[in-house]
Each structure stands twice: as structure tokens, then as C-alpha cells.
Design goal:
- There is one protein chain.
- By secondary structure, the protein is an alpha/beta fold.
- It is built from 13 helices and 14 strands.
- Residues 1-36 have low confidence and may be disordered.
Amino acid sequence: MRHRQLIAVTAALAAGALTLTACGSRDDKGGATADGGGTTVVIGVDAPLTGDLSALGLGIKNSADLAAKQANEKKYVKGVTFKIEPLDDQAQASSGQQNATKLTANKDVLGVVGPLNSSVSESMQKVFDDAKLVQISPANTSPSLTQGPKWAEGQKTRTYKSYFRTATTDAIQGPYAAQYLFNKAGKKKVFIIDDKKTYGAGLAGTFKGEFTKLGGQVAGEGHIDPESKDFSAIVTQVKSSGADVVYYGGEYPAAGPLSKQIKASGANIPLVGGDGIKDKKYVELAGATAVGDFATSVGAPVESLPSAKEFIDNYKKAGYKDDYSAYGGYSYDSAWAVIEAVKKVVDANNGKLPSDARAKVLEAVQGVSFDGVTGKVSFDEFGDATNKQLTVYKVEGDDFKAVESGTLGG
């Protein structure tokens, strides 16, 4: 994709060649413009800005940037100019951890938006928590990130108080898909595949639990290496299993080719996945036979929400080359949650940031509540989004179209 300039900027950032301006006008990093005040507050953004998942990552970056621009134009926090510092994690945990260390070292960073991948977040959480630096992901859905490793056993423990998310979790998303497929799509026999990553395996597990609870049959299970594009072995198993649907836990770079190869084998059954496959790029990779495939995604379709109209208009006016994609609205709301927290802290300290601003901003985020792009934005005692809405999408033509929105069991 079209990333040469972005790659150059990221390389310059890594080399320490670019510096922050004091306030106001655009600097070489492409941060937000407009004059908000004499104090610069940086919001870090971590996402895959290059590579297979960059379509999602660039939407996250641009949407956070738009939030900073809007706050500056409105002079939302008197005396403060917001800027973003985008870092590319390439969907790799090791890169994410390095980025977390870099962001915590910059004293102007008072909040971080991202990452996209739950497995990347696992490598970042302790770094941010030790620094009392708030992290808000617009896309992570693994329940263990907020509720601990034993959440499925009913032992919910919040390990890192610095971690929040605006997306709902796979504890809800997987079962929601199972209920739709079994009760409304009439699918009774599923072949379950995952990519063995934190997100994919976790999502497949919660789907399986609900599908079998409803009376559905698991015709077979398997794993794939998402880096491989030859899925013939698992495709053969799918074809011989008699399944009437495939559920895939993973992301679109592998899901698209997998769907295409399943159809090419003669097994004319839909592939269904979670928010990780819900992108137009999936349809491009899967080809014409993707029509009829399904995906669930967090929240209601942004385009359908009255609260999102201004966001969409402003995003277009800003002239970003890449679409806001699946998590744009959630990224904007994540950045705005940081902005709201900074405002609370500044207002409570006679219009200035206190010396312990990071800790104060972290504390303020827990109590944030506002009407955002994606609806009501607030967090529960675990740092999870209180908005639990989900949507089922179906491939029609060359993209996903919303089928229905609702809540688990609703």
C-alpha cells in the first residue's frame, strides 16, 4: 500500500531525528494542527502502520489524529495543544514493547491509543502500568487483558489498572456470533479454525462454547499458520467434514485466502469470523466467492449512528488518504477519553498540568463518561467498555453490509 512517506517518518522518529514543536503549528511528524495553548500534551498511537494489517492500523492513527485536531480547533482544554506520536508495531509483540518503552520515556506523553492486536497489548501492559501511563485500545477484544487469565473460570482480576478499551470483548463477541448462526442463519454443524494467536484462539474458544451449548455440532477443529497462504490440508478436512459453516478465529490476511480455497475445493459454505476479518480487504483477498460470508464486529455500524455523522464529515474534510476502517470511531473515542481526562486534571489544578500529570490522567480516565462517535463512552471496574453492542455483517458485492445489531442474548 501507499506508505513510503509514513515509513520515512517512522524511521525518523525511531532515529530521534524529529522533535516536538512547542505548540500550535504542524511539525514534521504530521501531528495535529491549530493553536490550543502553551503546553504540549502528546497522545501516543501504536498500531500496525505497515504490513498486512495496515488498513486497520492507519484508520486507528488517522482517527486519533483527528481527535487531537478537533480538540485544538475547539480550544477544548485551555492552555493545552494536543499532538499525536504514531509508532508502527507491525502487529508484532516485540515491536509493541519497544514502542511502549519509547512512549513512556517521553514525559509529554500522557496517554496512548492502541494497539490493534491483543497479543501486542500483552507485551505493553506492564510497561505502561509501571509508568502510570494510561493505555486505551480501540480494538483489543481478548478478555484476559482486563479480567485476568482465569476470567473464563469466573475468577476476574484486573491485573493492570492503566489499561482500558473502547471495544467490547470476545467473551461477548464469540457467543453473539454463535447465537446468530444457530438461531437465525440455521447453521448447525461448524468446522472451527484459528491462527493460534491470542485474539484468534480466544475468539474461537468463546464461539465454540456457546455454539455447543445451543445444541450445535462441531464437525472438526484445526489451526493454521497465518503466514502461510496454502491452506490445502485444513481445506481438505473441512470439505470431508460435512460442516455447513466454517468459523475462523483470526484476521483478514489469512481469512480471505482461506475462504477462497474452501470455495474452490467445492465446499460451498460460508466462512464466518470476528472483527479481525471485517474489512474490505478481506473481500478483495477472498474474491467473488466471498459473497455470503459473515463477520461480527464491535458496536453498531459507525455510518448508522447520528453521533458519528460529524466524525465522518470531519474525517473526509481532513483529507486522509486511508479509510477510518473498522476501528476509526473507537480510536477517535479512545483519544477523546484521554483528552477528557486531561481536561479534568487541568481544570482541577487551576488551569495547569500538575507534576504527577500521568497518574492524575490515569485516575481521571476511570471516571470519564461522554457521548462519543460510537455511542456512550465509559468504563467499568475492569476498564472494559460499558457499550456492549455488536453487529453482524454479510458480504454483499465487494464489501460487508450490516445485517443486524444487538447485544448478547438480546
